[in-house]
Amino acid sequence: MFKSITFEVIGDQRLNCEKCEQRVTRLLTPLGGVRQVHAQAHDQRINVLFDTTAVEPAALAACLGEAGYETRVVG
What we know:
- This protein is an alpha+beta fold.
- The protein has a single domain, classed as Alpha-Beta Plaits (2-Layer Sandwich), CATH 3.30.70.
- 28% of the residues lie in helices and 35% in strands.
- The protein contains 2 helices and 4 strands, in the order βαββαβ.
- β2 and β3 form a beta hairpin.
- The longest helix is centred in the first third of the chain and has 11 residues.
- The radius of gyration is 11 Å and the shape is globular.
- The model has no long low-confidence stretch (mean pLDDT 97).
């Protein structure tokens, strides 16, 4: 079953430009079960469509955290 989740970047390392958005997409896309990633620097949001049977939201957040992006789930 696919689910959408939105993370907000809240730490010191921010999404500042298109390259940052692309970096986040490259980080998350290889994770099993991730179908789509849309990072938006203008509002510091990362939307992820993922298969709940293949990956947990905590794994997505951990991947972002390892790359330096402190996040929280919104909505």
